[in-house]
Specification:
The chain is mostly helical. It has a single domain, classed as dinb family like domain (Four Helix Bundle (Hemerythrin (Met), subunit A), Up-down Bundle). Helices cover 54% and strands 0% of the residues. It is built from 5 helices and no strands. Helix 1 packs parallel to helix 5, helix 3 packs parallel to helix 4 and helix 3 runs antiparallel to helix 5. The longest helix is centred in the last third of the chain and has 27 residues. The radius of gyration is 16 Å and the shape is globular. It starts with 10 loop residues before the first helix and ends in a 5-residue tail after the last helix. This is DinB family protein. It comes from Amycolatopsis silviterrae.
Amino acid sequence: MTEPPDSLSDPRELLLAYLDYYRATLLRKLDGLSDDQLRTSRLPSGWTPLELLKHLAFVERRWLRWGFMAEHVDPVWGENDPETGKWSVGADESAESVRELFLEECEASRAIVARAQLEDIARGGGRFGEGQPPALSWILFHVLQEYARHVGQLDVVRELVDGVTGE
């Protein structure tokens, strides 16, 4: 998938196109890594590429299903080890199952967004219990910056793993 065209000017279309671009870029950067490479950290913080994928699946869940829709979802923080609080993928979780979780959460997010307007305010409860809940546009921009940051981090990890650079 290539970056959205510079002729795209509708804010909704542009935002959603960039979200899908980063979702696809994330998966493309993981393609070709062995199970061992997906489960091995190259950074002092200790996270692995597979843990990053799982984290972004739960980012989608937290911000769109639990956040915007105030849907009861369990677990909400399912990528975090209960003892350490750090991202984790269990030995019993396959790379394919984590990828499927990611794709399912992305699809759920797309369905939510398709039924809403950017100006719509998140429902009370769920993630936003008190105070003024944000608009969908704010939530989507937050999710977009999560992807941009984490895909950039994955760029570095991938280069350290096997020298692959670029898109």
